[in-house]
Amino acid sequence: MWVFAVLAAVGTASMLVGLVEGLPRWVTWPLGVFRSLAAFFTLTLLLLEVPRLIVLRRRRRRAAPGAAPAPGERPEAVLEPAASTGRRGPGAAVPGAEDGRPAGEGEQAAVPGAPDPRRGPAEPDRRLFLGRSAALIAAVAATGTTVYGVRGALAPPEIRRVPIELARLGSGFHGFRIAAVSDLHIGQYLGRGHTERVVRMINELEPDLIAVVGDLASGTVAHLGRDAEPLRDLHAPFGSFYVTGNHEFAYNAGEWSIEVERLGIRALRNERAELTRAGSTLDLAGVDDVFAWEIPGLRGPDFDAALGGRDESRPVVLLAHQPLQAEEASKHGVDLQISGHTHGGQVAGLGYLAALSQPVVAGLGAVGGTRVYVTSGAGFSNIPVRIGVPPEISLLELRSPA
Questions:
Q1: Which residues fall within 8 angstroms of residue 146, CB to CB, at 6 or more apart?
Q2: Strand partners, 282
């Protein structure tokens, strides 16, 4: 158990150090990789503990005195003091003595059913062997998983094209395309090159509108403003829009909202914009992330401010960082909510944990009468890996009823 304690202590320490803002990436990357190795090593050891305990228990049962031998297995010959039944001449063989050698006074005879003291204590050797084998397997598995995960995290985002039909969408917006990206997580692992690649890939899609759905950065504008600057190169006929995520509120969401406005992206903070195309109108609204409620003095998401007083005959698309905000959105008649936050679990299988708090983890779902689309994000956080859940940029094509 001391191994787990050491890994937990060192992993926690590296995580806390990695959160110190302004550390160079040649420091934060090794710390992140170590956390990944420690996490996967610990997980593998825990998984291997079950078969190890089963093997040890079976061996103990087989070694117990009087235990019945397995089918087809011969009982081991065990020595026990030979009974003295009269004088034996020198050289007389005692039944069961090995190699036919004479047994002297006090020598033992082989008797089935008891352990052989001449073999030494085998149980500690077996336990040591199984323990070392488990540690070696866990180390190899953790290393391979981490290398694979880092490659997946740094791979170019996949383009996910999703048609979405909205019952109230006017014919003028049929085929309207929204490029949705979230969770870039510019910060301790990802910098300007990451932002440039995402911007280039979005522009190549030639969308009608661009939505940046929170968790743009994990740090302050003072430290990461330069890394975010390529966002000024985003181009779309109806513009680019942004809503805050939980990470921005940890590093001054107000400053980030001002910064994205400076870069030509409109921040929707509990407000909406009216879009018109070919005689049809669409409302695009945005609300702050619920994490704002954890910070004294901030009002957090305000659906009444963002959606109140509008023409309810119009369709409305809402940008909200967390999918769970769809519960309130459905009460306000939102047709489509676009969210991020979950990273799709980031590691295959962890999406089930995200589902405990989020109604939709990835892709298209519904909450009440509101359709919810969750993009898995273009970056990553905590540990620098993605396994089975690649980074993505989503291209949503809105369709009106036929």
A1: 33, 36, 37, 40, 385
A2: 275
| 347 lies in some domain | yes
Considering the domain boundaries, does residue 87 fall inside one? Answer: no
Which of these, 396, 392, 387, lies nearest to 150 by C-alpha position? 387
Quote the distance between the C-alpha of residue 340 and its chain's center: 14
SS3 213: strand
Rounded CA-CA distance 27/24 in Å is 6
Distance CA 152, CA 385 (A): 7
* pTM given for the model: 0.81
Cβ–Cβ contacts within 10 Å for residue 170, how many? 19
Nearest to 211 by CA among 230, 184, 187: 184
Same domain for 294 and 274 = yes
Whether 199 and 339 share a structural domain: yes
Same domain, 250 and 183: yes
User: Over the stretch 196-212, which tens digit does the pLDDT of each residue have?
Assistant: 999 999 999 999 999 99
Q: Judge whether 74 lies within some domain.
A: no
What are the pLDDT digits (tens) for 255-295?
999 999 999 999 999 999 999 999 999 999 999 999 998 88
Q: Which two tokens stand for residue 205?
A: 């899609």
Burial group, residue 203, by CB count within 10 angstroms (0-12, 13-18, 19+): middle
Domain that holds residue 357: 158-399
For residues 32 and 165, state if they share a domain.
no
Q: 10 Å Cβ neighbour count for 314?
A: 17
